[in-house]
Amino acid sequence: MGWTRRAWLSGIGCSLAASPLMTPVSFAALPGEARLVVVILRGGMDGLDVLRPVGDPMLKVLRPVLADGAGSRLTDTHVLHPALESLEPLWGDGQLGFAQAVSTPYRDRRSHFDGQDILEAGTAGDVPDPVRRDGWLNRWLQTRPDAHARTAFAIGREEMLLLRGNADHAAWAPDARLRMGGATQDLLLHVYRDDPLFHDAARVALELSAETEDKTEARAGEALFSFAAKQLRGDARIAALSLGGWDTHRDQPRHLSRALRRLSDGILRLRGDLGAAWDKTLLLAMTEFGRTAAENGSRGTDHGTGGTMILSGGALRGGTVWGDWPGLSEVALLDRRDVNPTGDVRRYAAWALRSLFGAEQAVLERMIFPGLEMAEDPRLLG
Predict the structure, then answer these.
(1) Crossing angle for the helix pair 5-12 and 112-121, nearest 10 degrees?
(2) Cα separation of 285 and 376, whole Å?
(3) The whole model's pTM is what?
(4) By C-alpha distance, which of 351, 272, 285 is closest to 312?
(5) In whole angstroms, what is the distance from residue 287 CA to residue 309 CA?
(6) What is the pLDDT of residues 329-378, one digit of tens each?
């Protein structure tokens, strides 16, 4: 039996499911001028920190450290994380938006592997069959007789389920060093907790390694978006890639800021390199689940449920926060710990396909995203 993403990652530890250098990119060619970029944020991005609901009085109660900081005020009730300040002009130009309190139908178990599989498969909450699973973007491409695979390929060390299926795409894996994830770092420090000499040495080594990796990751991230732009200026009309580094169990201010800067730099590089094609482009950045409403004792957050989706592009009708806010009171939280999802992340992906490419709603609800009710059009495009 061949190696799957789940089997390979299981063999080297859960933290690598969100490794910053696990960054595949896939492309698919279609006629027309509309372009879709899907970015999978592996590790569970903390939407409450990215788009801070400062209008909710419980935010500072649940997050006395994480909610205490600067940021750009986007609305009367939302502040943007300071690491995304370079994207604030896009908000003013209507090229940046957010969908709050969203998730896949996945509940309770909060596994990176299952959550990512469900996100990319577009299923109604059940983990896809390891043998038969395919991705929602691939299923949609199969409905397009005018689609071809001349420029369909993937870059990265792991397969993206998002584009797995009968619509062919090639793959290329660049050389990359694997950075130690947050959970693995915690384990290393725990092993040496009773040995001051080795504990301090391990801590210093991790800090020095992080500084080097920060620079490497930043360059690699921009290169991925720049490469995507090059393909989208040609035949490709759909690009899918993933960015890791969102699993912030500890020291979230540092780790999340680094991941957000990689994302914002990538978006700006995509815009710059696309040129006029940016005006026809919509980008969706989505994650497998959100994080707990309350911060933990390590200045981080743990696996949760409801999260935030980031949307960008010249085609976007942005400057908007979509979705109903459920509140952060104890009774409003899911299981008294997580943001309670009020929206399905698949709904925004479905409306993106319908608005950009004219996909039929019945096909989207039955075949591409089984069990989805698309409901009212959120009017993503300007």
Answers:
(1) 160
(2) 21
(3) 0.85
(4) 285
(5) 7
(6) 999 999 999 999 999 999 999 999 999 999 999 999 999 999 999 999 99
